[in-house]
């Protein structure tokens, strides 16, 4: 079924996605009904189907939107640096800043992959692979340049992303350490994991 268009329809569609995101993050995909989403938005349950075909489509849209937003943000943030060490630091800082601003999206994107249909899983997985390739390419270039020591760049790239994303499970604003210090610690951890040394100019900004 085609979605409604126009400013009012687009606003309602955004509200439905936002409500689904909140409820999925709080209760889990399986425990949330379309009726609950409708109540959260303030519309009749049947009205949801003017904007989405079913709950599975809502979940897929959220996960795909998250990955497309992430890839676009990285394209805007990355620099044309030849030095693999500088590129890795830029990536680490970008990943942390981007994900800490989208904790619910990140949680759903990892915890609810299992609830995607096979077709939707493949759609999300293709986007995830593009992002993983960013780190893998940096590590390959670092190994070739002799600045990283990594036995398997593919495995190392997945491990790094998992480590960096894990910050969303424990970080709280106003905690013991300022964000800049946490970024520095994670940069050091990342470089230690790949057997390299961080660039001398620490603390560079990385837009997200």
TrEMBL record:
Entries under PROSITE patterns matching the protein: HTH_TETR_2
Organism phylogeny: Bacteria, Pseudomonadati, Pseudomonadota, Alphaproteobacteria, Rhodobacterales
Domain HTH tetR-type, chain residue ranges per copy: 10-70
Pfam families given in the database record: TetR_C_24 (PF17932), TetR_N (PF00440)
Name recorded for this polypeptide: TetR family transcriptional regulator
Species, as recorded: Halovulum marinum
GO MF term set: DNA-binding transcription factor activity; transcription cis-regulatory region binding
InterPro entries named among the record's database cross-references: Homeodomain-like_sf, HTH-type_TetR-like_transc_reg, HTH_TetR, KstR2_TetR_C, Tet_transcr_reg_TetR-rel_C_sf
Keywords linked to the UniProt accession: DNA-binding, Transcription, Transcription regulation
DNA-binding region in chain numbering: 33-52
């Amino acid at each position: 079924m085609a979605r409604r268009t126009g400013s009012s329809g687009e606003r309602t569609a955004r509200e439905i996605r936002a409500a689904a995101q909140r409820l999925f993050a709080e209760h889990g995909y399986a425990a949330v009904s379309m009726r609950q989403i409708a109540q959260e938005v303030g519309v009749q349950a049947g009205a949801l189907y003017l904007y989405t075909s079913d709950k599975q489509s809502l979940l897929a849209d959220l996960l795909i939107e998250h990955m497309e937003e992430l890839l676009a943000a990285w394209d805007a943030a990355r620099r044309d640096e030849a030095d693999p060490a500088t590129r890795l630091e830029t990536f680490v800082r970008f990943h942390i800043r981007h994900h800490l601003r989208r904790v619910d999206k990140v949680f759903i994107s990892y915890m609810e992959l299992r609830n995607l249909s096979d077709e939707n899983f493949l759609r999300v997985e293709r986007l995830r692979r593009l992002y993983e390739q960013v780190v893998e390419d940096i590590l390959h270039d670092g190994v070739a340049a002799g600045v990283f020591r990594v036995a398997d760049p593919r495995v190392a790239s997945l491990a790094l992303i998992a480590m960096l994303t894990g910050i969303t499970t424990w970080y709280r604003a106003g905690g013991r350490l300022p964000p800049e210090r946490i970024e520095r610690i994670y940069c050091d951890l990342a470089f230690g994991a790949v057997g390299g040394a961080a660039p001398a100019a620490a603390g560079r900004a990385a837009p997200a």
